[in-house]
DNA sequence: TAGCCGTGGCA
DNA sequence: TTGCCAAGGCT
Protein backbone atom coordinates (compact mmCIF):
# COMPACT_ATOMS: atom_id res chain seq x y z
CA UNK A 1 0.00 0.00 0.00
CA UNK A 2 1.60 3.24 -1.14
CA UNK A 3 2.17 6.22 1.08
CA UNK A 4 -0.23 9.01 0.29
CA UNK A 5 0.28 12.70 0.67
CA UNK A 6 -2.71 13.26 2.91
CA UNK A 7 -1.24 11.71 6.03
CA UNK A 8 -3.58 9.78 8.36
CA UNK A 9 -3.58 12.60 10.86
CA UNK A 10 -1.89 11.47 14.06
CA UNK A 11 -2.49 15.03 15.14
CA UNK A 12 -6.27 14.75 14.86
CA UNK A 13 -6.35 11.45 16.70
CA UNK A 14 -4.47 12.80 19.69
CA UNK A 15 -6.29 16.11 19.75
CA UNK A 16 -9.69 14.41 19.56
CA UNK A 17 -8.82 12.05 22.38
CA UNK A 18 -7.76 14.99 24.52
CA UNK A 19 -10.92 16.91 23.61
CA UNK A 20 -13.20 14.04 24.54
CA UNK A 21 -11.52 13.81 27.92
CA UNK A 22 -11.07 17.43 28.90
CA UNK A 23 -13.08 19.85 26.78
CA UNK A 24 -14.92 22.61 28.61
CA UNK A 25 -18.63 21.78 28.96
CA UNK A 26 -20.17 24.49 26.80
CA UNK A 27 -23.94 24.42 26.27
CA UNK A 28 -23.79 25.02 22.51
CA UNK A 29 -21.79 21.80 22.21
CA UNK A 30 -24.48 19.70 23.89
CA UNK A 31 -26.16 17.20 21.56
CA UNK A 32 -29.57 18.79 22.10
CA UNK A 33 -28.50 22.26 21.02
CA UNK A 34 -30.48 23.48 18.02
CA UNK A 35 -28.84 24.85 14.85
CA UNK A 36 -30.24 28.25 15.83
CA UNK A 37 -28.50 27.93 19.19
CA UNK A 38 -25.27 27.28 17.31
CA UNK A 39 -25.84 30.32 15.12
CA UNK A 40 -26.44 32.56 18.12
CA UNK A 41 -23.32 31.26 19.85
CA UNK A 42 -21.18 31.87 16.78
CA UNK A 43 -22.39 35.45 16.42
CA UNK A 44 -21.74 36.15 20.08
CA UNK A 45 -18.33 34.51 20.03
CA UNK A 46 -17.06 36.67 17.18
CA UNK A 47 -14.32 38.55 19.05
CA UNK A 48 -15.92 38.06 22.47
CA UNK A 49 -14.57 35.59 25.07
CA UNK A 50 -16.57 32.52 26.12
CA UNK A 51 -16.93 33.65 29.72
CA UNK A 52 -18.83 36.77 28.71
CA UNK A 53 -20.99 34.95 26.16
CA UNK A 54 -22.26 32.14 28.39
CA UNK A 55 -24.95 33.96 30.43
CA UNK A 56 -26.03 36.10 27.48
CA UNK A 57 -26.46 33.08 25.22
CA UNK A 58 -28.72 31.28 27.66
CA UNK A 59 -30.91 34.33 28.23
CA UNK A 60 -31.11 35.00 24.49
CA UNK A 61 -32.30 31.51 23.63
CA UNK A 62 -34.88 31.49 26.38
CA UNK A 63 -36.32 34.67 24.94
CA UNK A 64 -35.89 33.86 21.25
CA UNK A 65 -35.69 30.07 20.86
CA UNK A 66 -36.17 30.18 17.09
CA UNK A 67 -35.20 32.46 14.19
CA UNK A 68 -38.87 33.33 13.69
CA UNK A 69 -39.27 34.49 17.27
CA UNK A 70 -36.37 36.92 16.91
CA UNK A 71 -37.52 38.02 13.48
CA UNK A 72 -40.88 38.99 14.96
CA UNK A 73 -39.49 41.77 17.16
CA UNK A 74 -37.89 45.10 16.14
CA UNK A 75 -34.14 44.94 15.58
CA UNK A 76 -33.70 47.42 18.41
CA UNK A 77 -34.85 44.76 20.86
CA UNK A 78 -31.97 42.59 19.70
CA UNK A 79 -29.55 45.47 20.14
CA UNK A 80 -30.87 46.13 23.63
CA UNK A 81 -30.64 42.47 24.63
CA UNK A 82 -27.12 42.32 23.23
CA UNK A 83 -26.24 44.54 26.17
CA UNK A 84 -22.49 44.92 26.60
CA UNK A 85 -21.22 42.07 24.49
CA UNK A 86 -19.60 44.61 22.21
CA UNK A 87 -19.75 45.25 18.48
CA UNK A 88 -23.52 45.88 18.53
CA UNK A 89 -23.68 45.64 14.75
CA UNK A 90 -23.52 41.90 15.36
CA UNK A 91 -26.91 42.13 17.08
CA UNK A 92 -28.31 43.94 14.07
CA UNK A 93 -26.87 41.34 11.74
CA UNK A 94 -28.14 38.46 13.87
CA UNK A 95 -31.61 39.96 13.72
CA UNK A 96 -31.36 40.43 9.95
CA UNK A 97 -30.09 36.88 9.71
CA UNK A 98 -33.16 35.65 11.60
CA UNK A 99 -35.45 37.61 9.30
CA UNK A 100 -33.85 36.10 6.21
CA UNK A 101 -34.01 32.58 7.64
CA UNK A 102 -37.66 33.08 8.53
CA UNK A 103 -38.62 34.57 5.18
CA UNK A 104 -36.43 32.67 2.74
CA UNK A 105 -35.61 29.38 4.47
CA UNK A 106 -38.89 28.48 6.12
CA UNK A 107 -37.48 29.27 9.53
CA UNK A 108 -34.82 26.57 9.23
CA UNK A 109 -31.13 27.42 9.50
CA UNK A 110 -29.50 26.37 6.20
CA UNK A 111 -26.91 23.59 6.23
CA UNK A 112 -25.21 24.59 3.00
CA UNK A 113 -22.05 26.70 3.32
CA UNK A 114 -22.89 28.91 0.34
CA UNK A 115 -26.42 29.54 1.60
CA UNK A 116 -25.01 30.38 5.02
CA UNK A 117 -22.46 32.75 3.48
CA UNK A 118 -25.31 34.67 1.89
CA UNK A 119 -26.79 35.50 5.29
CA UNK A 120 -26.04 38.83 7.03
CA UNK A 121 -23.14 38.71 9.47
CA UNK A 122 -22.06 35.23 8.40
CA UNK A 123 -18.62 35.06 6.84
CA UNK A 124 -16.19 32.27 5.95
CA UNK A 125 -15.60 31.18 9.52
CA UNK A 126 -19.17 31.24 10.80
CA UNK A 127 -20.62 29.57 7.71
CA UNK A 128 -18.35 26.57 8.10
CA UNK A 129 -18.76 26.50 11.88
CA UNK A 130 -22.54 26.29 11.55
CA UNK A 131 -22.37 23.65 8.80
CA UNK A 132 -19.94 21.57 10.84
CA UNK A 133 -21.27 21.98 14.38
CA UNK A 134 -25.00 22.22 13.69
CA UNK A 135 -25.23 19.71 10.86
CA UNK A 136 -22.11 17.57 11.02
CA UNK A 137 -21.01 18.53 7.52
CA UNK A 138 -17.39 17.62 6.88
CA UNK A 139 -15.85 21.02 6.11
CA UNK A 140 -12.68 22.61 7.50
CA UNK A 141 -13.42 25.26 10.13
CA UNK A 142 -10.64 27.78 10.49
CA UNK A 143 -10.56 30.48 13.12
CA UNK A 144 -7.71 32.33 14.79
CA UNK A 145 -7.14 29.45 17.23
CA UNK A 146 -6.90 26.86 14.47
CA UNK A 147 -4.54 29.04 12.47
CA UNK A 148 -2.24 29.33 15.48
CA UNK A 149 -2.35 25.62 16.30
CA UNK A 150 -1.53 24.65 12.72
CA UNK A 151 1.19 27.27 12.42
CA UNK A 152 2.91 25.84 15.47
CA UNK A 153 2.25 22.12 15.30
CA UNK A 154 2.61 21.70 11.55
CA UNK A 155 4.63 24.64 10.24
CA UNK A 156 6.89 25.07 13.25
CA UNK A 157 6.25 28.79 13.51
CA UNK A 158 5.39 30.78 16.61
CA UNK A 159 2.50 32.60 14.94
CA UNK A 160 0.48 32.08 11.78
CA UNK A 161 1.17 34.06 8.66
CA UNK A 162 -1.41 36.72 7.80
CA UNK A 163 -4.77 35.09 7.00
CA UNK A 164 -5.07 33.66 3.49
CA UNK A 165 -8.38 31.88 3.08
CA UNK A 166 -7.45 29.28 0.48
CA UNK A 167 -4.17 28.33 2.12
CA UNK A 168 -5.67 28.22 5.61
CA UNK A 169 -8.53 25.99 4.49
CA UNK A 170 -6.12 23.68 2.69
CA UNK A 171 -3.92 23.44 5.78
CA UNK A 172 -6.87 22.44 7.94
CA UNK A 173 -8.21 20.07 5.29
CA UNK A 174 -4.89 18.22 5.31
CA UNK A 175 -5.40 17.41 8.99
CA UNK A 176 -9.13 16.73 8.85
CA UNK A 177 -10.10 13.10 9.45
CA UNK A 178 -11.95 11.38 6.61
CA UNK A 179 -14.70 10.20 8.94
CA UNK A 180 -17.41 12.84 9.29
CA UNK A 181 -17.86 12.39 13.03
CA UNK A 182 -14.15 12.58 13.72
CA UNK A 183 -13.89 15.58 11.42
CA UNK A 184 -16.59 17.44 13.32
CA UNK A 185 -14.92 16.67 16.63
CA UNK A 186 -11.54 17.74 15.29
CA UNK A 187 -12.90 21.08 14.12
CA UNK A 188 -14.06 21.78 17.65
CA UNK A 189 -11.03 20.18 19.26
CA UNK A 190 -8.46 22.19 17.31
CA UNK A 191 -10.23 25.40 18.31
CA UNK A 192 -10.41 24.26 21.93
CA UNK A 193 -6.72 23.41 21.95
CA UNK A 194 -5.87 26.88 20.70
CA UNK A 195 -8.21 28.48 23.20
CA UNK A 196 -7.04 26.75 26.37
CA UNK A 197 -3.59 25.22 25.74
CA UNK A 198 -1.91 26.55 22.61
CA UNK A 199 -2.73 30.12 23.54
CA UNK A 200 -1.30 33.24 21.96
CA UNK A 201 0.60 34.19 25.09
CA UNK A 202 2.23 31.66 27.42
CA UNK A 203 1.12 28.39 25.77
CA UNK A 204 0.78 25.47 28.20
CA UNK A 205 2.96 23.03 26.29
CA UNK A 206 3.25 20.73 29.31
CA UNK A 207 -0.49 20.07 29.00
CA UNK A 208 -0.52 19.70 25.24
CA UNK A 209 -1.65 16.37 23.78
CA UNK A 210 0.51 16.81 20.69
CA UNK A 211 3.65 18.24 22.26
CA UNK A 212 5.55 15.16 21.12
CA UNK A 213 4.80 15.86 17.47
CA UNK A 214 4.72 19.67 17.56
CA UNK A 215 7.01 21.12 14.90
CA UNK A 216 7.44 24.38 16.76
CA UNK A 217 8.52 22.59 19.93
CA UNK A 218 10.83 20.29 17.96
CA UNK A 219 12.47 23.32 16.37
CA UNK A 220 13.22 24.83 19.77
CA UNK A 221 10.42 27.42 19.82
CA UNK A 222 11.88 29.83 17.26
CA UNK A 223 10.57 33.37 17.60
CA UNK A 224 8.14 34.78 15.07
CA UNK A 225 9.96 36.43 12.19
CA UNK A 226 7.14 37.40 9.85
CA UNK A 227 5.37 40.71 9.30
CA UNK A 228 3.83 42.27 12.39
CA UNK A 229 0.13 42.93 12.58
CA UNK A 230 -0.78 46.57 12.92
CA UNK A 231 -1.19 47.48 16.56
CA UNK A 232 -4.75 47.93 17.76
CA UNK A 233 -5.65 51.57 18.02
CA UNK A 234 -5.99 53.14 21.42
CA UNK A 235 -9.55 52.82 22.68
CA UNK A 236 -9.52 55.60 25.25
CA UNK A 237 -10.70 58.76 23.54
CA UNK A 238 -11.52 57.01 20.28
CA UNK A 239 -14.71 57.27 18.23
CA UNK A 240 -15.38 53.70 19.25
CA UNK A 241 -15.50 54.72 22.87
CA UNK A 242 -17.91 57.54 22.10
CA UNK A 243 -20.12 55.23 20.06
CA UNK A 244 -20.13 52.86 23.03
CA UNK A 245 -21.24 55.62 25.37
CA UNK A 246 -24.07 56.63 23.05
CA UNK A 247 -25.22 53.05 22.61
CA UNK A 248 -25.23 52.48 26.34
CA UNK A 249 -27.52 55.51 26.69
CA UNK A 250 -29.85 54.34 23.91
CA UNK A 251 -30.10 50.85 25.40
CA UNK A 252 -31.00 52.23 28.81
CA UNK A 253 -33.62 54.68 27.54
CA UNK A 254 -37.21 53.85 26.62
CA UNK A 255 -38.04 57.31 25.31
CA UNK A 256 -35.99 59.27 22.74
CA UNK A 257 -32.61 60.50 23.96
CA UNK A 258 -32.21 64.20 23.25
CA UNK A 259 -29.24 66.07 21.83
CA UNK A 260 -28.87 67.79 25.17
CA UNK A 261 -28.60 64.47 26.95
CA UNK A 262 -26.07 63.20 24.45
CA UNK A 263 -24.03 66.37 24.86
CA UNK A 264 -23.47 65.44 28.47
CA UNK A 265 -21.79 62.19 27.47
CA UNK A 266 -18.69 63.61 25.84
CA UNK A 267 -16.95 67.00 25.90
CA UNK A 268 -15.87 67.09 22.26
CA UNK A 269 -19.03 68.10 20.36
CA UNK A 270 -17.55 67.46 16.93
CA UNK A 271 -16.47 63.96 17.88
CA UNK A 272 -19.84 63.28 19.45
CA UNK A 273 -21.59 64.31 16.24
CA UNK A 274 -19.27 62.16 14.19
CA UNK A 275 -19.97 59.14 16.39
CA UNK A 276 -23.74 59.70 16.30
CA UNK A 277 -23.73 60.10 12.52
CA UNK A 278 -21.85 56.84 12.27
CA UNK A 279 -24.42 55.06 14.41
CA UNK A 280 -27.26 56.51 12.34
CA UNK A 281 -25.54 55.38 9.15
CA UNK A 282 -25.06 51.90 10.61
CA UNK A 283 -28.72 51.67 11.57
CA UNK A 284 -27.90 51.28 15.26
CA UNK A 285 -29.67 54.54 16.05
CA UNK A 286 -32.63 56.22 14.41
CA UNK A 287 -33.95 59.75 14.69
CA UNK A 288 -37.23 59.85 16.57
CA UNK A 289 -39.34 62.83 17.62
CA UNK A 290 -37.03 65.11 19.50
CA UNK A 291 -34.15 62.67 19.80
CA UNK A 292 -32.79 59.24 19.01
CA UNK A 293 -33.76 55.69 19.81
CA UNK A 294 -32.76 52.15 19.00
CA UNK A 295 -34.15 50.95 15.66
C1' DT B 1 -7.62 45.40 1.47
C1' DA B 2 -6.55 47.57 5.35
C1' DG B 3 -9.08 50.00 8.65
C1' DC B 4 -12.89 49.98 11.39
C1' DC B 5 -16.01 48.22 14.77
C1' DG B 6 -17.06 47.41 21.79
C1' DT B 7 -15.85 45.65 25.89
C1' DG B 8 -13.38 43.74 29.58
C1' DG B 9 -9.79 40.74 31.61
C1' DC B 10 -5.14 39.84 32.21
C1' DA B 11 0.03 40.23 32.46
C1' DT C 1 -0.72 51.66 33.75
C1' DT C 2 -0.66 50.29 29.13
C1' DG C 3 -0.97 47.06 25.60
C1' DC C 4 -2.46 42.73 24.04
C1' DC C 5 -5.90 39.62 23.22
C1' DA C 6 -10.63 37.46 22.47
C1' DA C 7 -14.81 31.22 18.03
C1' DG C 8 -14.80 37.81 12.53
C1' DG C 9 -17.23 40.41 9.16
C1' DC C 10 -18.00 44.40 6.39
C1' DT C 11 -16.72 48.00 3.28
From TrEMBL:
Its cofactor is [4Fe-4S] cluster. The keyword Cytoplasm does not apply. Its EC number is 3.2.2.31. It is an enzyme of class 3 (hydrolase). It catalyses: Hydrolyzes free adenine bases from 7,8-dihydro-8-oxoguanine:adenine mismatched double-stranded DNA, leaving an apurinic site. Residues 44-196 form the HhH-GPD domain. It comes from the Bacteria. Pfam families: EndIII_4Fe-2S, HHH, HhH-GPD. Keywords: 4Fe-4S, DNA damage, DNA repair, Glycosidase, Hydrolase, Iron, Iron-sulfur, Metal-binding. SMART domains: ENDO3c, FES. PROSITE patterns: ENDONUCLEASE_III_2. Belongs to the Nth/MutY family. PANTHER family: ADENINE DNA GLYCOSYLASE. This is Adenine DNA glycosylase. It comes from Gryllotalpicola reticulitermitis.
Amino acid sequence: MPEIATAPAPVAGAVNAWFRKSARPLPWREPGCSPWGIVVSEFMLQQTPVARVLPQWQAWLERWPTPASLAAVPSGEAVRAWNRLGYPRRALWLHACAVTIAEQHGGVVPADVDELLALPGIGPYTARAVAAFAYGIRVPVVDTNVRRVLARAIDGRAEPAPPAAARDLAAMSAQLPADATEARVFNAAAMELGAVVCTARAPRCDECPIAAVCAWRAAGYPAYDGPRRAAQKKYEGSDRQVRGLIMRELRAAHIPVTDAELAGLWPDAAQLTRALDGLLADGLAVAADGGYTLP
